[in-house]
Amino acid sequence: MAFTRSAGTRSRVWLASGAGAAVVAASVAAVAWNGGSAGASGGEHAAGAVAATSAAGFRHPGVLVGKAQLDAMRSRVKAGKQPQKKAYDAMIASKYADLKRTPKPRANVECGSSSHPNNGCTDERDDAMAAYTDALAYTVNHDQRYAAKAVQLMDAWAKVLKEHTNSNAPLQAAWAANDWARAAEIIQYSPYGAKWKGAKRFSSFLRTVYLPVVNKDRPTTNGNWELIMTDATISIAVHTDDRAAYDQAVARWRKRLPEYVYLKQDGPLPKTPPGVSGKAATIKYWQGQSTFVDGLAQETCRDFGHTGWALDAAVHVAETARLQGLDLYKEARPRLTKAMEFHAQYDLGAKAPSWLCKGSPKTGLGPVLEIGYNEYHHRLGVALPKTGQLVTSKRPAGASYFLGWETLTHADAP
């Protein structure tokens, strides 16, 4: 596997294969990190992550956060800039950053509906989120104890977990896989990566235990399932340099998003997945909603919580694709921006019309719009007043399930 890294105006190429590639990239990162000097902005050059491009064409680090975001995050926290400083402080004070955490792996994680039964479900999600949290903390503070803790958590689960079972298995696997892949990507392409002897085993773990479960179509479940699973698929694909899985994730995203968020151009009824056909079945699938307007989502009248998960998962896929040079954001701009503004207005207290969820939608998106707002408003200059008001009111975004510290990583991110 070949890795290419830019060093100032020069370009160097290292040739390696398998786990050796990670060691080479990590060694270069260590040189860059230790040799960085303070810049005028108060940040440091080469703030930990080393930019690399694999033979498969993937840019690393490139799962939800890339080198530019990681560098900006650290620079802003070190300079005491908001909202990153407050977000970082909240993260470090959370249970997920506890350096005394003991991993709780098990061979079979059994999760039924709403995690009943809960045989390892919470433990797996929490340990995965902790690994990602520790990776972000290490990026900011350069304290190797956090990197070591992330590795301890990843190695423990990679040695033990064999399967996910019961009805919630695909969703549970996706929740955890998203955070595992983000953590692994940051650690592997950092100075600590050279010390991570289990990196190759962990990549295999993601490919064999998680990818077959999450890289599947789930056409007739509520749409948040397939979007979260697609988020996990593209995350694993990038980290493990799996071009086929990456292409499958992109194709699934392109199909599912129009089936999840309605636009008038779709016609009088929303687009529907296989297994849902006809007006009556469509209305039933859309939670009994029979009036369709721009930005309405398939789960809007279920509750805004699941809707927020789906919208953020869709944005995660687009953000990872952006880091890999594919502009899915452009394709999704009308659907995502209209969905964000549509739901934000009701979360801010606007009275719902009688035709919407019988006049009583269950609001509460949660802090899920930060990354989408950053792309469309900060990077592209799209006016999103309601989204902006809601995003700033929710800062700093915390962590739960597969959503973690998005104010820290993406508020006004490059």
TrEMBL record:
GO molecular function terms attached to this record: lyase activity
Q: Which domain of life is it from?
A: Bacteria
Give the record's keywords alphabetically: Lyase, Signal
Please list which residues make up the signal peptide. Answer: 1-21
Q: What is this protein called?
A: Alginate lyase family protein
Domain (Alginate lyase): give its ranges.
117-270
Q: Which Gene3D superfamilies match?
A: Chondroitin AC/alginate lyase
Q: Which SUPFAM superfamilies match?
A: Chondroitin AC/alginate lyase (SSF48230)
Matching entries from Pfam families are given as:
Alginate_lyase
